[in-house]
Amino acid sequence: MTRVKRGTIAHKKREKVLKKTKGFRWGRKSKERTAKEALLHAQSRMFRGRKEKKRNYRTLWQVRISAAVKEQGTSYSKFIAALKKKDVIIDRKILAELAQKHPAVFQAVYDAVMK
To answer: What are the residues whose beta carbons fall under 8 Å from the beta carbon of 98, sequence distance 6 or more?
Structure first.
């Protein structure tokens, strides 16, 4: 009977875990047990982080729009209400970009909405 060497699948599984933990600190990148534990936490935080990123960006856009609108002498809430009343469909991301990089265009949007 021929000799059968075992453990290739298990080795591949371990290597896959260690590959995902590349860049982690201390033993979490090289020791299998701690790497597995670190991955369990990291993957749950990855999911949560993607959701938080969306919230953080929306807040940033609101702050930028608010700053641009305050220069005109209006509040953010009044500006957004006027946008909805006039049925202008420009999302906050685009408005924030216009306020920051193209103030003249933002001014035109503001004038069209508020007057």
So the answer is: 105, 106, 109
Name the architecture of domain 8-114: Orthogonal Bundle (1.10)
Full-model pTM: 0.72
Mean pLDDT of 66-93: 96
How high is the mean pLDDT of the chain?
95
Q: Taking the chain, what is the end-to-end CA distance rounded to the nearest angstrom?
A: 91
Dihedral-angle region of residue 11 (phi above 0 means left; psi in -120 to 50 means alpha; beta otherwise):
alpha
Query: How far apart are alpha carbons 95 and 105 in whole angstroms?
Result: 10
Two tokens at 34? 């701690």
- Kindly tell me if the per-residue pLDDT of 52 is higher than 90: yes
- Joined tokens for residue 9: 């699948």
For residue 107, pLDDT beyond 90 = yes
Question: Rounded distance, CA 35 to CA 49, Å?
Answer: 20
State how far the Cα of 108 lies from the Cα of 65, in Å rounded to an integer.
14
Measured CA to CA, the distance from residue 115 to residue 112 in angstroms comes to 6
- The first and second tokens of residue 109, run together, are 């949007």
